[in-house]
């Protein structure tokens, strides 16, 4: 495993109290594979990435528990000097706002060349030559002339290509792409994602793709981890997620994608708003917005149940969610269509048909069905 994140907890101290931004996140990335981390703003996906990179603002952010293993080393035990040695040659990050991430008073050639003068000890002339080569590699035309230009002289798509060039300059083993297509038009989004996929295949890198848009991951990712309120609520191979989601939140995200074959159908939106990280509701954090929520969801936080090998869902009623997706009509019905089974008539994870999920304090927390599901 190239990257292995285990039981990661991150909190922020705010005026409203302690905001638990990340609550027990587990995920892994293998060499040459792509994990898409999907979720709404505030779900904790970017904070997790910042912790992996070692660039979490501290204070106010603080890692309270967990491990982040990269190539077998626990990064949380390293000094800042040792972490800096990992960034660049080992792992690199592509930020979502290229204009803010790039230095406005330095030419792009100087910024790209700095990667080689600082990390490789090259002379400036040689570093500039490498900068031109990188710009050509990521598809920037006229690189020999444009290497002297400044970030504001490039379009949004070209600036993002420069960010990709900087991230790839030292040929890292892992790329973390944080919303790399934000604010780009659809055509440019496709070009940027195609470029990332092509370079990943060429260099054999692992990649963590952070996004809120299911539409950009279908052709790029191998696995998806869906985050909500600081937790991973579903993880599975990408095609399993699209074919039959096992968590109501994932299902809601899929139903929110406009479809050309459903003319006249009102566009679906998940009701309500994500919870305040400083005041996450008890039980399942999604229950106030969930069409399948029952009493147990308001009191018992679901573990990540093992749906199948390599697939997990943090939903007490994942079987019912799968059944809705697999109805013989061939279409996913809109979330909330039909009432959930009455208590005692459904099949809950880890229980026999017709039984309710274990009551709080019963001693049975469903661990028999629980397993590592991130592959």
UniProtKB/TrEMBL annotation:
CDD domains referenced in this protein's UniProt entry, alphabetically: ABC_NikE_OppD_transporters
Region (Disordered): 326-375
Gene3D superfamilies the record matches: P-loop containing nucleotide triphosphate hydrolases
Membrane topology value: Peripheral membrane protein
UniProt GO molecular function: ATP binding; ATP hydrolysis activity
InterPro entries, per the entry: AAA+_ATPase (IPR003593), ABC_Ni/Peptide_Import (IPR050388), ABC_transporter-like_ATP-bd (IPR003439), ABC_transporter-like_CS (IPR017871), Oligopep_ABC_C (IPR013563), P-loop_NTPase (IPR027417)
Keywords on record: ATP-binding, Cell membrane, Membrane, Nucleotide-binding, Transport
Feature: compositional bias, Low complexity: 344-354
Keyword Phosphoprotein among record annotations: no
Limits of the ABC transporter domain: 5-254
Origin: domain of life: Bacteria
This protein's record includes keyword ATP-binding: yes
Single GO cellular component term: plasma membrane
Subcellular location: Cell membrane
Positions with biased composition (Pro residues): 331-343
One GO biological process term: peptide transport
Family, similarity comment: Belongs to the ABC transporter superfamily.
The protein, known as: Peptide ABC transporter ATP-binding protein
